[in-house]
Amino acid sequence: MKTWMRRTGAGLSLAGALAAGTPAAWSQPMGLPSLGAASSAELSPAVERTLGQAIMEQGRQDPTYISDLDINQYLTTLGRRLAEHAPQALAQEVTVFAVRDPSINAFALPGGYIGIHSGLVVGAQSESELAGVLAHEIGHVMQRHIARGITQQSQGTGIMVASLIGALLAALAGQGDLAMGVATFGQAAAIDRQLGFSRGAEQEADRAGLQMMRQAGFDPQGMVAMFRRLMNAARLNEGTGGGYASTHPLSIQRLSDIENRIEGQPAAAATPDPEFWFVRAHLALIQARDHADRQRLQQTLRTEARDLRGARQAAALYGLASLHRTEGDLAGARAQLAQAQSVQPAPQLDMLAIKLAEAQGPAAAVEVSAAAWKRWPGSQGVAEGRARALQQAGQDEAAAAFLQAAARQWPDTPDFQKLLAASLQRLGREVEAHEAMASYFEQTGALPTAVEHLQQARSLSKDFYAQSRLDMRIRALRERLDTQRALLEPFRKQ
To answer: Which residue intervals define the domain Peptidase M48 in the entry (predicted)?
Structure first.
C-alpha cells in the first residue's frame, strides 16, 4: 500500500514526527485477542472514535480522498447493511469512504472508518465481490483488531499512539493546526499494514464476513472469487510491495477455509443493487487521470454497452455520456444519456442530467433537478445537484430551505451544512451562516474550529434568545473538548 505523507508550511506530518523514534518497519503484534476479552491496554471505543475522527478530519483534505456524496453514500449504506448482520455488536458505527487509487485494496481506521480504493470497486465483477472485501474489513472492526493492535507497545506502536495523541491534545487545546501532527490516510493506512494481522485474526474476519454476506443477501461465492483475484494479483506483483496481500496476508489455507464453509450451503438468492454498476463506472471515470486512460476506458465501455444488458449496459452508457461531457461533446453526452435512461433508471443518470442542463442555463438546471429530486428523494447526490442548481440560479432562499431539510434528513453528512452556510452568507444571514459552519466542523471532528464559528456568531447576534442558544452550544462543545482531553491524556506517554 502506498504511504502518502504530507508536510505543511508549519510542521511535519506524523511520519516526520516519528522518524527519530520509531523503527522503519514495525513487527507483527502476535497474539491479538480473538473473540474474547479485550486487552487492558486497548483503546476504549471513545478514544478510538476520537482518533478516527481526527484522521478523517485531515484525510478529507488529502487529494486522493473522493468527496463524492453519491459514491460514499452507496459504500456506507452497503457497509451498514452488512454490519447489521455482524455475529456480535460493533463498538463503532461503520462509515465507508472511497480513495482514488487504482490498486485493489481496502483498509480500516480506528473508529469504524473503512477506506476503499477505487481500484477495488472497478476490479470487482459483482457487488458480492465488493461486499466480500468490505465484510472482511467490518470483521476486523467488530473484533477491534485495529484498536487492540496499535496499543501493542512491545512492537513500537505505543510510540506511534503517543505521538498521535500528543498532536491531538495540542490541537484540542488550540495550540496548533491538527494537520501539523496527525496522519493523512496514507500514514493511517500504514498502521493497518504494519500491524500485520495474525493468521487467526484474518481467519476470524473471513468467517465473520461470510456470515454477514449470507445474512445480508449476498452470494458468499463473491468472497471466494475476489480472494482468488487478489491472490493472482499478489503473485503478479510479488516483490513490489503494496496491494491487499501486504495488509491482509493471503494463503491457500484461508481460501480453503472459506470454500469449506460455503460447501454444502444452499445457493444464495443474491439481490444486487443496480447502483453498484453506476458507482463502479463513476469510479472508473475518476480513476482515469489522462487522455490515454480515458481512451482505454472508452473502448471498454463501448464494448460493455454493446454486449451487456440491463443495469450493466445502462452504467456503461452512463460512463460514455460522462466521457463525452468531459470532452465538451454535449450533444453526444445527451444522446448516450437518453439511451441509458431508456434501459435502466438510476439516480446517477439524473445527476448527470442536471449537469448537462446547466449548459442550457440555470433555469433549465433548476427544472431538471426538481424532477430528479422527486424521483430520488433518498439520494444525497441528487440532493446536492438540486441545491447547487438553486444556488447557481440565484435562488438562495429556496436553496437554504432545501439544505436545512437535507441536513435534517442526513444529520451525519457535513457537506450539506457547508453548502447551507454559503447560501446563508449570500443572503446576509451571517449569524446563521456561522452556525452552519460550526455544525460542519463539529460533524467533521474539528471541535475547536466549531467553537470559533459559534463565538463569531455570538458576537454578531443582537438577539438575547439567539445568544443564549449559542452560549449553550459553545458550553456543550467545550465540555466535549474537555472530555476528549481527559480520555486522551492517559495515552500520552504510552
So the answer is: 72-261
Backbone angles phi, psi at 252, to 5 degrees: -60, -35
Say which DSSP state 108 is in.
E
The dihedrals phi and psi of 320, each to the nearest 5 degrees, come to -65, -40
User: What sign does the dihedral 327-328-333-335 (CA atoms) show?
Assistant: negative
Which set of grid coordinates corresponds to residue 423?
447560501
pLDDT attached to residue 160: 56
Calpha distance 124→312 (Å, rounded): 13
Alpha carbons 64 and 237: distance in angstroms, whole number:
22
**Terminal alpha carbon distance of the chain:** 27
Decide: helix, strand or coil at residue 98.
strand
Give the position of cell 445457493.
267
Q: Are 18 and 183 in contact (CB under 8 A)?
A: no
C-alpha closest to that of 214 among 132, 123, 120? 132
Q: How many helices (H) and strands (E) does the chain have?
A: 24, 3
Strand partners, 99: 65, 117
Q: What is the pLDDT of residue 32?
A: 33
Q: So what's the pLDDT on residue 142? A: 87
Active site residue 137: yes
**Active-site residue, selected from the candidate residues 137, 304, 358, 384:** 137
Amino acid at 419: L
Nearest Cα residue to 70 out of 290, 376, 375: 376
Neighbours of 485 (CB within 10 A): 14
Q: What is the DSSP letter of 266?
A: P
Question: What are the grid coordinates assigned to 162, written together?
Answer: 503517543
**Cα radius of gyration rounded to whole Å, the chain:** 23
The reported pTM is 0.85
SS3 107: strand
3-state helix, strand, coil in the chain (%, to 5): 65, 5, 30
Mean pLDDT per 10-residue interval, the chain, length 494 residues? 28 28 29 35 76 81 91 97 91 92 87 92 95 93 75 49 64 55 52 57 86 92 88 59 54 81 74 92 95 94 96 98 96 98 97 97 98 98 98 98 98 96 98 97 91 97 96 96 82 59
